[in-house]
Specification:
It is built from ten helices and twelve strands. It has 310 residues and is an alpha/beta fold.
Length: 310
């Protein structure tokens, strides 16, 4: 894909994902009555690179990391997602009972509502970033923004390990690093890992970045939310962190972040180029999301100043 076209497509995808969240937060974050169809439409599971696999839907991403000591699953998604996620894991030739660690991108219904069922079925160890633990263990009842919305709540799940920024999650010879990229939630997490080369395959290892969420909902108060007064500062720290991460494989909590549906056909067709290797697309996405944040912050600051004259 030519660079200019790719940048335009990725910016459009980022804007689309953000618009869905901003315009319809109840729909976008899991209202049972009006889910985005791409969140529940199955997608074939596949190997992204090395020991990293995709087992999510057309837009709600779920990733599987295979090691000799078992499996790491990132994102349990909707309450209905464990069934198709398990089917994907088993279709790839792995055993569901070998899921040893469960991680999430952040404590919103569309990424962790399925966690309780997955933990019940696999006995995995649940690891969550510190500032999202309370929300996960209360089923969303302590969420700073959506706690008053019953449609946003989800089955509570016990967290076995509280993570902090920069913590390592290790299984076998694979290490994932948890980067706190707060803003969308106080404990929003971006995961990085270096893929392991599978035996019998001649391919390089890649530095993968799985973005948590850089999106600002239009209903968020970036100026003076008493439940999250440092939201704007956290978003700025998030963008600084994201820009600092080395990236070969560009991935994210929503497949639309990184244009999966546009890139997957080339992988299926056996292209020699792995289109998920997209450092430029990653940096373009981060820059576009940062600009969207700054634009929304400026709009809210202007409104706040107008309504609070000195």
């Amino acid at each position: 894909m030519p660079r200019t076209t790719r940048r335009t497509v990725l910016a459009s995808l980022a804007a689309l994902a953000a618009t869905r969240l901003a315009a319809h937060p109840a729909r976008a974050l899991g209202s049972a009555s009006a889910l985005d169809p791409d969140w529940t439409t199955p997608h074939p599971p596949y190997r992204i690179a090395g020991n990293l696999f995709y087992v999510g839907s057309r837009d709600l991403a779920s990733f599987l990391v295979a090691t000799h000591e078992g499996l790491i699953l990132i994102n349990g998604n909707l309450a209905t997602s464990p069934v198709p996620i398990r089917a994907g894991v088993e279709q790839l030739g792995f055993r569901w009972s070998d899921v040893k660690i469960l991680l999430i991108s952040h404590a919103h219904y569309d990424h962790c509502a399925g966690s309780a069922q997955i933990l019940k079925e696999t006995g995995a160890t649940y690891m969550v970033m510190d500032a999202d633990v309370a929300s996960v263990q209360s089923g969303g009842k302590t969420d700073f923004h959506f706690s008053a919305h019953p449609e946003m709540l989800f089955p509570a799940a016990k967290v076995n390990r509280t993570l902090h920024d920069g913590d390592a999650v290790r299984l076998g010879k694979t290490t994932l690093t948890a980067h706190k990229t707060a803003g969308h939630t106080p404990g929003c997490t971006t995961w990085t890992l270096e893929t392991a080369v599978l035996s019998g395959r001649a391919e390089p290892s890649y530095k993968a970045v799985i973005v948590g969420s850089p999106n600002v909902l239009s209903s968020y108060n970036l100026i003076d939310d008493p439940k999250y007064p440092n939201m704007a500062a956290d978003f700025r720290c998030q963008f600084a962190t994201l820009k600092s991460l080395p990236c070969d494989l560009f991935l994210g909590a929503h497949a639309s972040y990184y244009g999966m549906l546009e890139k997957y056909p080339s992988l299926k067709a056996g292209s020699t180029a792995n289109h998920f290797v997209d450092a430029r697309g990653y940096h373009d996405f981060v820059a576009e999301r940062q600009q969207a944040f700054e634009t929304e912050l400026a709009r809210q600051q202007k409104t706040h100043t107008a309504s609070h004259p000195s």
